Amino acid sequence: MNIKGTRNLYCKICELILSSAFGVALITENTPKTALPNIFLEIGLMIAYGKEILILTDSLENIPSDLSGKEVIVFKSDEELKKSIEKWSKEILKQIKYWNKLARISLYAKDYEKTFEYLKRAVMFGDFEDALSELMAMLENSLIREALSERLISEIKDFLTFTKALIENERSK
């Protein structure tokens, strides 16, 4: 997709979702009815891609029952919304340790696809040291590398390259 490019809006939406750690959907009584199908499609894609999703609303009546199992924050004021988002952010940051632990378990079980997914998630939420080091170690370990598919090696390399460039870009600011 990156090489040939595309003008397909759905491909661009998927690309943005895949490159994001999480998504936020705002659905209030003021959300135009014509925007709701797009918002629900994007929420569905986030769920399908295993991304964290935070749904913000001023009333649970705005949220379809199919989304009742997702994180939904109901707010009545800007201050309440700010506090809820801060709490959610702290909870997500605690998840990094959990994802790193799952990655170690997956690595021990030789499930390298899952290992990569857990480490990638930890990195995307801010673990730029431990998880990145683990990914590099996977590629440097000859026994592990031998067991990796060419596709997975390529994905890990691309992710490391992208992440390192992003970190360097942030440091140069």
Give structural notes:
- The protein is mostly helical and 173 residues long.
- The chain folds into 2 domains: 1-74, no CATH class; 77-173, no CATH class.
- 62% of the residues lie in helices and 9% in strands.
- It contains 7 helices and 3 strands.
- A 3-stranded parallel beta sheet has the order 1-2-3, sandwiched between helices.
- Helix 4 runs antiparallel to helix 5 and helix 5 packs antiparallel against helix 7 (150-172).
- The radius of gyration is 19 Å and the shape is elongated.
- The two termini are 29 Å apart.
- The mean pLDDT is 87.
Task: Give the tags.
2 domains, mainly alpha, 173 residues, 62% helix
Brief overview, please?
By secondary structure, the chain is mainly α. The protein has helices at 9-18, 36-48, 78-108, 112-124, 130-140, 142-147, 150-172; strands at 22-27, 52-57, 71-74.
Write the layout of secondary structure elements.
Blueprint: H1 9-18, E1 22-27, H2 36-48, E2 52-57, E3 71-74, H3 78-108, H4 112-124, H5 130-140, H6 142-147, H7 150-172
Parallel strand pairs: 1-2, 2-3
- Order of strands across the main sheet: 1-2-3
The major β-sheet equals: 3 strands, parallel
Backbone shape: elongated
Distance between the termini: 29 Å
- The total number of structural domains is 2
What is the percentage of strand-forming residues? 5-15%
Query: How many strand elements?
Result: 3
The rounded Rg comes to 19 Å
Helix content: 55-70%
Structural classification: mainly alpha
Total number of helices: 7
Mean pLDDT: 87
N to C succession of SSEs:
HEHEEHHHHH
Low-confidence stretches: none
